[in-house]
Amino acid sequence: MFDLVDILKSGQASSHIEPEKITTVLFHQTQECQGLVLESYRFEGITEPVIAPNKDENISEHVRLQNVEIVLIELNNSNNVTDDAKRISHLLPSHASVIVIGSEDAISTIRNLKEMGFYYLFWPITKQELIDFVRSVHDNRERNRGPGQKRRAKRVTVIGAKGGVGATAITAELSYLLSNVKHSSCIVVDHNYNSGNLDIMLGVQKFEKRRIQRGSFTDSLDLASAKSLLHKQNDMLSLLGLTAPDLTQGEVSEYHRSVIDIMSAECNFIIEDMSASSGQVYEVNHSWLESDCILLVSTPTVSSLRDAGRIKQIIDNVPPSQRPRLLIVVNNTMPEKFASVSLAEIETFLHQKADLVIPFIGDFGNVILDGKRLANINNKSANSVKSLASLVIGESTEKTHSLFKKLLSKVK
After folding, report:
1. H or E stretch at 233
2. pLDDT at residue 395 above 80?
3. Percentage, residues of the chain above pLDDT 90
4. Which of 47, 157, 173, 358 has the fewest CB atoms within 10 Å distance of its CB?
5. Helices and strands (H, E) in the chain, number of each type
6. What does the UniProt keyword field contain (predicted)?
7. Same domain, 138 and 257
8. What is the pLDDT of residue 1?
9. Whole-model pTM over 0.70
């Protein structure tokens, strides 16, 4: 005999089915796309995505959640999908898989996005096509496959032509701007293994370099042990500084490389502070040439310019297809009237215009020791410092340049 009560109870229990969990964020440009995504997730019983308009401030606010698995970015209103994807790539965490939805029908777009570690879904699409694609991407995540595995941090190396040109200060300001203003996760690497003042420039309190010893586990270094070597300044900025009195500079440098290689999948930018005075710039392997972007810092003096020319020659010898992007930064560590070379002479000698000129900042020491940032001080000299991050990520700096155009003319 049927027990109707038991049947009803079992039916009620089975009705409480847990939704399929694929943690997703959608940044949309059109109501049509927003509606299709929501309806698709609801129909398939997948946890509804977080929804927000496609604006930079929304992206930086929402995608930093550690549990985000998939980021959907609609670029149907974009005039150039590749360029817009590049522009916002620094806002996207490396741990999330990114699907770009766009109506640009070109194989080059698919190829370009794949090189960036993004998936591309051509619009218009059906609900079933969307869900199948999302599940495929999620499956790739579980199996560690797909374009997302190629997403690595952009490596930016700040090279001082010689000691005392301000490379460390520029490294600190750049890391602050990228992490606090541009909302990109950064790891700063200190290549001065015995001393240095990068911690002071960054405002890091009671910092001590991590000590490593001969026989350290370079071969067995994993993510957990690599993270343990970092000093976490805040959620978006960490510092890697190692020291090893018993090891050669080359051995410590190799250890740095191992840590950087592991952590490059965990952040947006790796910023390396490297002065030519350390000798590493002229080492045989030139590992810094593997950077995506190099900031070559020089003062407007003959000796500094000559050393900058030597470094630039090393870069110029790299085949164009493999050559990192080079930005020339002229930093006035003394009042401009004491410059021994002009901007025109610098351009002639280096065969490249200065991308950024930083005017002399008289109260530089007081600003840093007071725990403030150069980019936040209220004077015209700060405007050039603010341009640093925009230059690195390829944003226009025309407005900032116009504010200190008179200062540039004085240097000339």
Report:
1. strand 230-234
2. no
3. 49
4. 47
5. 16, 14
6. ATP-binding, Nucleotide-binding
7. no
8. 47
9. yes
